[in-house]
Sequence to fold (173 residues):
Amino acid sequence: MYPYTVVTEKFDTVMGYFHNPNIHPYGEYLKREESLRKFSSQTGFKVIHEKSYEMEEFIRNVAFREENRCFYCLASRLEITARLAKSSKFSHFSTTLLYSKRQKHDYIKETGEGLEKKYGVNFYYEDFRQGYKKGIELSREYGLYRQNYCGCIYSEKERYANLNSRQYANPGS
Fold:
């Protein structure tokens, strides 16, 4: 939500793109997509929804390289976005990953700038983390689902394994 409020003030036309082959399980993917559809219908925000869900490709590309999975995930999704921006004749592309406090902003920026050179479409970088609390307020206002982990099977495991280990360390909490 917060990134949308910022970029709509800076650009005449803003288009979203939902492409998340990393999200697991499929039910989580559907929750996130439905939340975006709800936001889109409430605000008039136009979104391109990728029809395919290529989770298997994501897993093939990160298996046995799990410690580098985020780099692959970020780069592959940004590249697909840059390619779509070029073919659709958009002036810029960006990512809402720049809203997350847990993402590797330097890597996102460096990757986006490299793709800008490769595809000839401007990469729009802004540190949206400053609006993190505002984004939470907006999502509540719109009644939207908020995920509690990045999305991939590995981040899901880390999220819930950490919760379980804290519960067992602090019984009764």
Observations:
- Residues 42 and 142 are 8 Å apart (CA to CA).
- The first strand starts at residue 15 and ends at 18.
